[in-house]
Amino acid sequence: MDHKVNGQGHLVLGGADAVALAEKYGTPLYVMEEEVIRAAMRAYRQSVERFYDGKGLICYASKAFACKEMYRIAKAEGLGADVVSGGELYTAGKAGFPMEKVVFHGNNKTPEELRMALDLGVGRIVVDNFEELETLSALAAENGVRPNIQLRIKPGIDAHTHKFIMTGQIDSKFGFALETGEAMEAVKQALACPSLNLTGVHCHIGSQIHEVTPFIRAAEVMVQFMADVRQETGHTLGELNLGGGYGIRYTDEDDPVPYAAYMEEVSEAIRASAAALQFPVPFILMEPGRSIVGEAGTTLYTV
Fold it and tell me: What GO molecular-function term can you cite, just one (predicted)?
């Protein structure tokens, strides 16, 4: 992010004098530039419109920075929201965010959080394990609702990032493993639950990824799995959620791929895979977080 300096030699953030902000609000002070956030959101949304005919939903991963104003901005920019806790879900609701555009994640959701999601009518719940699948099925039946769910799949992809922020490998604690047959078993169990509506599958291969290739490979693996599901169960999944993980500039050496280029290549990979397998091109969801807010924030200190 480029910063400006005014005639007094003061840093300017979003049109505001940083010294004046510090004097008014005290320090340390977090300053978020709304226009930088909005520009990033628009770039994501417009890339889907341009390269995927608009058949997708960008969901802001609010774990990156959650407050009511962020949800209001995401709503105004036409984005969905990825939430990972009852707190984020509550905050989104208080901000008036449309619940049908909320995706509820987390590998340790409590029954209370799941009830909250059902009561609010969230658009999609991403199920992470067999215990959650069983719990959610029972709660949905008890409440007389049939929520849309996606299953989180471990595609076995090396994301070429730090081992502590890789999440798509076979031994990840998140999701159902593809290679072991666990993922297909989860699909069959979900389809056997009359209180659940399985709409698609989700994967997230890691964070701070600066290459397109791992995302392309993940997309190809996931489309193949969707085709395998149809072959084995007769059920056609209509949604593919590729998660987030796009890198940002932490150092001068970091060189993230422009999102438009990423979206163009991933879109081509999805279409090509679907065509080769004679499978319908799926509706896609993507969940950028830090790449929306990471370069929009500045922390002010007094020394």
Answer: diaminopimelate decarboxylase activity
Q: Report the pLDDT averaged over residues 68-95.
A: 98
Same domain for 201 and 172:
yes
Please report which helix (H) or strand (E) contains residue 140, including its range.
Answer: helix 130-143
Mind spelling out the 3-state secondary structure of 24-41? HHCCCEEEECHHHHHHHH
Tens digit of pLDDT for each residue in 218-271? 999 999 999 999 999 999 999 999 999 887 877 888 787 888 888 999 999 999
Using 50, 70 and 90 to split pLDDT, how confident is the model at 1? low
* Cα torsion angle, 193, 196, 197, 199, sign: negative
pTM to 2 decimals?
A: 0.91
Structural domain includes residue 282: yes
